[in-house]
C-alpha cells in the first residue's frame, strides 16, 4: 500500500510524493486524512535545517503531528473503529522514509489507541488539539502557577491564554508587538511590551522561541517568580545571573504533551469551555504543499496553515 505524503528531502526542499506504507497490524487502523496542520515551531526547524539533534532526526522525512481524518480500514482487533473521525498526533506509517513526526500524508497507519475519536462538527479544527494539549501540559504541571504573562500571540500563545481562562484562572496579559497579531483576544488582553510597566509577574510563559529573551523576562518577575519555557529553542539560552539571583527566579521547561493532556483539552473543547475558533487563518490544497509551507513560515499574517488532503 502506498500514499501521497509531504517529504522533506533536505532542508528547504520539499516534495509531495508517493511513499510506501508499512503493513497494518491486528490492532492498527488505516486513516484517510482530511486535513493536517503545519507547525511553525518544530516543522519550521525541520524545514530550515536548524532542528537540534533529536531522536529519529534525518532526511528524507515526513513531518507533521496534527492530522484529522476518517478510519477507512482496520486490523481484526480494531474493526469497530471503522468510520470514526479521528485526530492523529503523527505516525510511523512509512516503509522507506523517516517519520518525524509522520502526520502529513493522505493515508496513515497507526495503533488504534493513537487515533483519538473526535466529534464530527469539530472538523479541521481538530488539528489544533496537539497545540491545545501542549498549552494544557505547561499550565497543568504539578505545582505550576497559571500564567499571568504570556509572550507571543501566535496560536500556541492564544491557546495558553484560552486554556488559562477555561480553567477559571485570572486572565493573563499577552505581549505582542505586531498590531495585526495582537487582535483576536478572547477574555484576556494583549499589549505591546514597550507599553507594559509591570515588574511583578509571578509566572511568565514564553512561546516566542527567542533564545535571547531571558534577561528581559527576568526583569519583569516578582520575587520568587517563575519563567516557563513553553516553546522550542534552536539556540542555547543564557541569562545574566545577578538579576535572577536578586529575585530568586525559577526556570521551568515544559516538554511535549502527554495523553492525559489531550484527554483534558478534548473535554474542555467538547463541553464548550475552550474554543478553537478563529485560529486557522490559511488553507491550501495538499498538492500545493511547498507554497503552503513557505507561507506558513514566512507570512506573519498566517497563524495556522491547514493542508486539505480531500482532493489529493
Structure explained in plain terms:
The chain is α/β, with parallel strands linked by helices and 312 residues long. It folds into two domains: 2-117 and 281-308, Quinone Oxidoreductase, Chain A, domain 1; 131-253, NAD(P)-binding Rossmann-like Domain (Rossmann fold). The chain has seven helices and 17 strands. The strands form four sheets. Strands 3, 5, 6, 8, 9, 16 and 17 form a seven-stranded mixed sheet that branches. Helix 4 links the parallel strand 13 (201-206) and strand 14 (221-229). Helix 2 crosses helix 6. The longest helix has 12 residues, at 129-140. The two termini are 16 Å apart. The relative contact order is 0.16. Keywords: Oxidoreductase. It comes from Afifella marina DSM 2698. GO terms for molecular function: bacteriochlorophyllide-a dehydrogenase activity.
Task: Please give a quick description of this structure.
InterPro entries: ADH-like_N, BchC, GroES-like_sf, NAD(P)-bd_dom_sf. The chain has 312 residues and is an alpha/beta fold. Helices cover 21% and strands 28% of the residues.
Amino acid at each position: 500500500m502506498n500514499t501521497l505524503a509531504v517529504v522533506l528531502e533536505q532542508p528547504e526542499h520539499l516534495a509531495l510524493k508517493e511513499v510506501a506504507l508499512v503493513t497494518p497490524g491486528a490492532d492498527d487502523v488505516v486513516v484517510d486524512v482530511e486535513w493536517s496542520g503545519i507547525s511553525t515551531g518544530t516543522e519550521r526547524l525541520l524545514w530550515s535545517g536548524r532542528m537540534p539533534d533529536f531522536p529519529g532526526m534525518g532526511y528524507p522525512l515526513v513531518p507533521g503531528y496534527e492530522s484529522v481524518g476518517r478510519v477507512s480500514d482496520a486490523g481484526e482487533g480494531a474493526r469497530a473503529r471503522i468510520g470514526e473521525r479521528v485526530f492523529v498526533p503523527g505516525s510511523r506509517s512509512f516503509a522507506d522514509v523517516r517519520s518525524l513526526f509522520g502526520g502529513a500524508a493522505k493515508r496513515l497507519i497507526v495503533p488504534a489507541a493513537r487515533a483519538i475519536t473526535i466529534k464530527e462538527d469539530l472538523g479541521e479544527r481538530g488539528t489544533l488539539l496537539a497545540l491545545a494539549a501542549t498549552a494544557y501540559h505547561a499550565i497543568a504541571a504539578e505545582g505550576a502557577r497559571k500564567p499571568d504573562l504570556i509572550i507571543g500571540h501566535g496560536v500556541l500563545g492564544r491557546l495558553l491564554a484560552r486554556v488559562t481562562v477555561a480553567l477559571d484562572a485570572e486572565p493573563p496579559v499577552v505581549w505582542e508587538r505586531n498590531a495585526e497579531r495582537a487582535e483576536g483576544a478572547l477574555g484576556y488582553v494583549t499589549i505591546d511590551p514597550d507599553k507594559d510597566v509591570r515588574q511583578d509577574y509571578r509566572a511568565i510563559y514564553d512561546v516566542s522561541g527567542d533564545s535571547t529573551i531571558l534577561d528581559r523576562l527576568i526583569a519583569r518577575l516578582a520575587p520568587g517568580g517563575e519563567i516557563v519555557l513553553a516553546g522550542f529553542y534552536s539556540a542555547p539560552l543564557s541569562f545574566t545571573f545577578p538579576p535572577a539571583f536578586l529575585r530568586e527566579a525559577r526556570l521551568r521547561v515544559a516538554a511535549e504533551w502527554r495523553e492525559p493532556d489531550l484527554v483534558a483539552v478534548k473535554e474542555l473543547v467538547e463541553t464548550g469551555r475552550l474554543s478553537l475558533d478563529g485560529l486557522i487563518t490559511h488553507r491550501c490544497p495538499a498538492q500545493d504543499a511547498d507554497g503552503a509551507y513557505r507561507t506558513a513560515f514566512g507570512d506573519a499574517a498566517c497563524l495556522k496553515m491547514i493542508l486539505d488532503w480531500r482532493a489529493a
